[in-house]
Batch of 2 targets.
Target 1
Amino acid sequence: MNHPKGTEHSKLLAAPCSLAVHAIQHEPEKQNAPCSDFDLEKANSLRRNENVINQGVCVGPFKITWLTEDFFLRICRYEIANAVSMIVPSLVSYILLEIYAADTNRFAKAICLAPVIHFPFSFCYHGYMALPNFKEDWALLYHRLDSAFIHAASSVYAYGISCSLGYGLLTAPANAVPICLLWRSTSRVPNTRMMQLSVTMYLIPYLWQGMYLSFILVAASFFVILKIWEKKYLGAIYHSGMHVMMGLPQALMVASALGLLPSI
């Protein structure tokens, strides 16, 4: 399968997954072997860099022949789980607002709105990746939108946490920069450092408000979730697991805005 944009572009796309493919290339005995979670992680990685929907797919100079139909069905199921699990932060927000309706304020509502803004784009991206014959150009578009609305939601968080519309607007240009860079890159891999900067910008107001406990709890939860996601401690479900765990910092931020956490 030749990439329509030429050999050099194919090599560029295949580069991030070359090590994983290299390991597969030297294990022909796996052709009829059952698929482990470790294998599934590799397949997910490959799938996000090149369209590997058929057996015997070429990824750059390598050819994969041992991926079975069941294997790809498992990948699709995990992508569906990734899509559905994104509802957790929004659901947590809704539950807290319902329980503490009497204490609700516009800043708590803004914090609850942030994951709702991001949810449809993440859902569409992962849902599209679960399709058996997805197109690379559309996958790239959906992933860009998924990443872009993380930054858009960050400015909404900044407004809700700082209780200042001015500060929320101040973070907007900083979040617009990585959004623009997403459309200039040929890679679907989001810039996690820029995302970390966005998170830092909306957590900083806790410090000047003297809400140190809120800052420590939310920042610590983000840090732990990031490490679990980076190290893939949850195996093949590491991505959907990360989405579910994001309900914790979301609950903490809403609770802080509702005055449920002590201001220490």
Target 2
Amino acid sequence: MDQLTRRRIAFAIILILMVAGSVFYFLWGAFLNRGTIVLIGEVPFEVRVYEEGNYLCETSPCEITQKIGLKNLILSKEGREDMIVEIDVPLWREIAEEVRFRFIPYLKVVEEIPDKDNVQEFTLGYDEVNKYYKLAEANSFIDEPIAFFAKEIKEPKMFGNDRTVLVIDGESNDAYKVDRSTNTKIKITEDLSGISKGEWSENGDFFVFETTDSPNIFIIGSNNETRQLGLTKEATEYTWADENSLFFVSNHGLASSSEVGAHLNYVTVVDDITTDFSFGIYHAEENSYTKIKSFDLEDSPTELIPASNGKI
């Protein structure tokens, strides 16, 4: 093979490599260096990916394909606060993000007070078939067990909703948190024997309660640890709505939460209140408060009622 032929072959190889490289570069930039963002939340909502484009999520999960690397997302939903999320998109894989919008609070006059949902009641009895003590929902058409206990629960106290049930043995003071979605239970080490009133949040992550020996209001978090709220039982009404938001009306001064809220521009810590009643929200996940409005009332409200759309 003479020198000219070798040069031609070398040139052809270089040309082929350049073309192949260009094709690969094009395919990499246009199709290959991609990952998928999976957003899970209440639809519909809009997503703006910084310098990339806008997307409308009408189904959940909502999948958005993007180039790999850090992406800044602005998520918007009517009547809710915008969310800013930073996501590192992996190559050829999915990354999931749960979207929980916080609604923009407002007040309006309603013509009719909505009915309040009945408090769910539960029973504990011995199951002759399984030879265990069975926790079940009272007055249910289906006698389906929620959980089983090896020993009898003496003088039981039970507080529950569709997601979670708290069972307290009044004799031994043992307490159990029952997950209704998995029919499993865990033992809680906190002493909850003095509970006189309690209510689970809508998704069953948080439990607000009062005790007979304290003027304060407490909450059990998702980590099963108890913390004291900046609210007292006297002249205070409260109820859960919008998943983990505890709405309250109180004329007592509130101490600042021990942890700073995750969204500083959203959170206003309630100041001391001496005469007016304050309507506000305690954000259980952030351990922070938002003040909505103050009212000059002669008497304390007797009840807060969540509406069918999850609002007060």
